[in-house]
């Protein structure tokens, strides 16, 4: 199987997590961000992740891929229950996390931004939605202070470093990708429970963090 993806994309990380956790072989193929032809040929639109199965058929939508691999691999299926507290935390983080991560991800040597045209394409698309990248970088401390406060709120919700609700589940599929992206941000005050959690899930899913190239 082949998984077409971007490294900075939280939805792609969702798909990568289930392959890593279930130890299912897959070839990761990183597309340039301005490559519209490949995803359009595979699923008719520019979207990742895309899974090309062994039979050659292609599947989009991150959670569809997660459920497909979860069932294909066998064993205990993921607990799909997501606590309202986790849903609420994610909704709050969604109001500002992109202001921290989008301006930084183009500068940490990710494969989808290997060319200037890919960077320009991304910047033009995202600034039209989220606003000026340089302004967000200038406002970083405000966003970081909000994140630091929210990490304190998140900490007591972590029941185990092997799975936020005690075992690896859909809560981890939804939460870890957001936290992983935030490890590219310098100056975040990670609480001990959250830091232990992201390091543990990184090992379990075989997905490295960005904490060695913070900006």
From TrEMBL:
PROSITE patterns: GLUTAREDOXIN_1, GST_NTER
Domain GST N-terminal residues, every copy: 1-77
InterPro entries hit by this protein: GLR_AS (IPR011767), Glutaredoxin2_C (IPR007494), Glutathione-S-Trfase_C_sf (IPR036282), Glutathione_S-Trfase (IPR040079), Glutathione_S-Trfase_N (IPR004045), Grx2 (IPR011901), Thioredoxin-like_sf (IPR036249)
Signal peptide: none
This protein's GO CC annotations: cytosol
Pfam families: Glutaredoxin2_C, GST_N_3
NCBIfam families the UniProt entry points to: GRXB, PRK10387.1
Protein name: Glutaredoxin, GrxB family
